[in-house]
Amino acid sequence: MKKTILTIILSTLSVSILVTPALAATTVSFSPASVKVAPGQGFNVAITVNPQGVSNYVEKVVLNYPADTLEVKSFSLGNTWMAMTQSGYDLVDNANGVLVKTAGYPSGISSSVVFGTVSFYAKKAGSGTITIGNNSLAFEVNSQSALSGSPMSFIITAPAVTTPKPTIPTQVVPSQPTTPVQPTEQPVSRPIAKMPQTSFMASIVGALTLGTGNVWLGILVGLIILAIVAYVIYTLIQRKRKNLGKIK
């Protein structure tokens, strides 16, 4: 029943358009106004229409986008809007980059209302704009007007490729042949022959006994030596006395 009502409204508006001059009053805006994504990512764009005080009942929104970088995945209408799926009013053409969506608002709108949301997919790196097509229309009670609005820009950036730093191979320095260390000849210390130690008395005894070791012979020799020493001393004393007497 609702589709029938919308069809009647659209037909009535189409007839009235033929006899009424067009007024460019309704504008379209995108949110966000620009976007930056990476290849393989998706993003959503909300479409808002603003009749600027003029009552609108049906909106036909046509979007043009670069098909080599973007692809439409889905479209969802805003609350209260009723979609019109007739040929020429509903289309998704990813080969040529065209989206056409048409819907009616039963009570009419005269201020900003979200028309719907488009989900895009970033196919590859690049940049461009999403624009309002020339066939976009706003249907009023007795006339129609072309929709206008600023394009939306997008940038699809490829992730930076990190080039690994070349690994410098470690140069292995061949080890130098080790010269064998010749053992140092240590001087051989030879034992020093120890001289036999004899006591002083043993030497005297040996001299007195003339090397014979005879004790009695040693005594006799000793007495003779003592006698000689005593005689020498006595002679020296007598000579000293005579010299002293001559001096007197």
List the helices and strands and how they pair.
Layout: H1 2-17, E1 27-31, E2 34-37, E3 42-50, E4 56-64, E5 70-77, E6 82-83, E7 91-93, E8 98-109, E9 113-122, E10 126-132, E11 137-140, E12 144-146, E13 152-156, H2 200-208, H3 215-247
Helix pairs in contact: 2-3
Task: Summarize the helix and strand pattern as letters.
Answer: HEEEEEEEEEEEEEHH
Q: Strand pairing plus helix content: what structural class? A: alpha+beta
Domains, number? 2
- Beta-strand proportion: 25-35%
CATH fold type of the largest domain: Immunoglobulin-like
The parts where pLDDT drops under 50 for at least 5 residues are 12-24
What top-tier CATH class of the largest domain fits best? Mainly Beta
Can you tell me the CATH architecture of the largest domain? Sandwich
Q: Please report the total strand number as a whole number.
A: 13
Mean pLDDT: 81
Q: The biggest beta sheet, please?
A: 9 strands, mixed
Which descriptor suits the 3D outline? Answer: rod-shaped
How far apart the termini lie comes to 190 Å
Number of helices: 3
Radius of gyration: 67 Å
In helices, the fraction of residues equals 10-25%
